[in-house]
Amino acid sequence: MVYAIVRAGGRQEKVSVGDFVTLNRVPGGAGSTIELPAVLLVDGEKITSDAKDLAKIKVKAEILEDLRGPKIVIQKFKNKTGYKKRQGHRQALTKVKVTSIA
């Protein structure tokens, strides 16, 4: 089984061909292709972690759609001062499908 650990959106994700991955928003529209930098490659019993060898590895993914994450509510409160603040946030995300690891 071939899989790779790639750096995407400040995190590392384990991907193999055909996987669907949700990343932080990446530039490009639906149908375009992006390339993700590999941190580790596992091909059966062979494990590649050398930076020179990983520079040759291309992990390509196709952008499927842009979406928004779940609503996160941020509440701040300080006792006895009358201070309270409520704020919401929805992260901008992109759903991609890994097409090749070569």
Can you give a write-up of this model?
InterPro entries: bL21-like, bL21-like_sf, Ribosomal_bL21, Ribosomal_bL21_CS. Pfam families: Ribosomal_L21p. This protein binds to 23S rRNA in the presence of protein L20. With 102 residues, this protein is mostly beta strands. The chain has one domain. It is 4% helix and 63% strand. It is built from 1 helix and 10 strands; from the N terminus they run ββββββαββββ. It has one helix at 51-54; strands at 2-8, 11-15, 20-24, 33-36, 38-43, 46-48, 59-68, 72-78, 83-89, 92-101. The strands form 3 sheets. It has a 4-stranded antiparallel beta sheet with strand order 2-1-5-6. Strands 3-10-7-4 form a 4-stranded antiparallel beta sheet, with no helix packed on it. A two-stranded antiparallel ribbon has the order 8-9. The longest helix has 4 residues, at 51-54. The chain is elongated and about 60 Å long. The mean pLDDT is 94.
